[in-house]
Amino acid sequence: MTTIARSAGAALSPTLTGIFLSVPALMNVPFLLAGGVKLVYDALLYYGFRKIRPPEESGGRALVA
Fold first, then answer.
1. pTM recorded for the entire structure
2. Mean pLDDT of 33-51
3. C-alpha–C-alpha distance, residues 49 and 28, integer Å
4. Residue 32's pLDDT is what?
5. Which of 33, 30, 11, 10 is CA-nearest to residue 20?
6. How far apart are CA 21 and CA 28, in angstroms?
């Protein structure tokens, strides 16, 4: 399932980027989209792992409720 999503993204990205870069008014759109996706990715990682502590911080337990 993840391979399909990655393949679709890898196939569409150059095409969309070429379209955006061919229009002078839209040249910054690919960079803004990439930055936005990265921010969402980082926020989701933080949200998913914010309650998990390393074993050395939790006295040997990996998950703190």
1. 0.63
2. 94
3. 32
4. 95
5. 30
6. 8
Do residues 21 and 27 lie in contact, with contact meaning Cβ atoms separated by under 8 Å? Answer: yes
d(CA 8, CA 5): 5
One-character DSSP codes across 14-49:
HHHHHHHHHSGGGTTHHHHHHHHHHHHHHHHHHHHH
**Phi/psi of residue 56, nearest 5 degrees:** -70, -20
- CA pair distance 18, 43, nearest whole angstrom: 28
Number of residues that make up the chain: 65
Beta bridge partners of 63: 52
Instruction: Give the residue among 46, 42, 16 at the shortest CA–CA distance from 31.
Output: 16
Identity of the residue numbered 46: Y
Flag whether pLDDT at 63 surpasses 70.
no
**Span 36-51, average pLDDT:** 94
